[in-house]
Amino acid sequence: MTATTSAKLESPLLAQVYQDEDGVYRGVEGNAEWAAEIRRLADARDAVILAHNYELPEIQDIAHHTGDSLALSRVAAEDKHSTIVFCGVHFMAETAKILSPEKTVLIPDAKAGCSLADSITAQQLADWKAQYPDALVVSYVNTTAGVKALTDVCCTSSNAVDVVKSLPADKEILFCPDKNLGAHVKRMTGRDNIHIWDGACHVHEEITGDMIAGSAKKQPNADLYVHPECGGTNAALDLADDGVVSADQVKVLSTGGMLTAAEQGVADGKKNDVLVATEIGMLHQLQRADSSRRFIPVNPEASCPFMKRITPAALLKSLCDGTDEIELERDVIDAAFKAVDRMIAIGNSPATR
Ligand code: 13P
Ligand code: SF4
User: Fold this and answer.
1) Closest-lying ligand 2 atom to the alpha carbon of residue 52
2) What is the pLDDT of residues 186-244, one digit of tens each?
3) 87 with 59: CB under 8 angstroms?
4) Domains and their CATH numbers in the chain
5) By the 8 A CB rule, do 226 and 198 touch?
6) CA of 142 to the centre of ligand 1 (A)
7) Alpha carbon of 189 to ligand 1 centroid (Å)
8) Ligand 1 centroid to residue 20 C-alpha, Å
9) How many Å apart are CA 51 and CA 285, to the nearest integer?
């Protein structure tokens, strides 16, 4: 649910903001004048700006923290500002609210949804649980607050394997909603008592095994970073098993894990190309981390339309108007908190900026 806070702030740029035919806020460039206004407004609102690695480059650059789902959740839990402006998609802002219910959490455009989060509803999960009453539920963070409220422990792409490994080996697991991440977790844990929901991200589904194999065969010396939501994740690992590339060339990583790997590449003096199988917003951080290597998208069309709704105009309007505010029922927050709090306690520290 979203609403509007009452406090308004003025900006000379606000009059330029309009909505295009898709309702996306436009009319303001992400230039130096805009950047100065954003910082001024954020200070006036006592707000911290968080941005996911798939956001537009100017949004990533103006944010106080840019990172993956796990890292940003941890910042949301610990940061001391009274307002969080979450430049990402709706489930990410909801997760921040679950972790910090006393704070005001804003998302610059509440229509920034997620096709993966939409692939399971709370009612569907309740029905699934009824079929397996003794199973534990592991939900990817890309789910609604209502689904999280029915979950034992959440995970992100960064710590999904560690989360499942932390659960008793003899317990059946219901893993939702991403079938590709689920298949990867099954492969890495060797568990055969995981039931996997048939959901997917429409952007990552289009990064197929054939595409990944085709790119790797054309550039056999390139490293390959693969996000586990990709349709071709297991196919990428098969390439190493089949000897097409060496095992140390292929890495299945969260977006923050990709940044860590790029930073490690600098330390190791690596100069070979990197094929990147994920949403193309990630290339901005990778190229910043290492300008001496080429980071090449496996699918240059893989752009998340939801992430790209957070434009410079949307962020400006959000800070001026105090919109769109995330509001969740107290019982949903209380029911979801334990699963999300367990999530942020498990696993590595993905790189942020
Ligand atoms: P990360 O957790 O790797 O940032 O991924 C989030 C996401 O939505 C991927 O599509
Ligand atoms: Fe959701 Fe896919 Fe966009 Fe990530 S890339 S926010 S999973 S639609």
Assistant:
1) 6
2) 999 999 999 999 999 999 999 999 999 999 999 999 999 999 999 999 999 999 999 98
3) yes
4) 2-113+306-328 (3.40.50.10800), 117-196 (3.40.50.10800), 204-297 (3.40.50.10800)
5) no
6) 8
7) 21
8) 27
9) 12
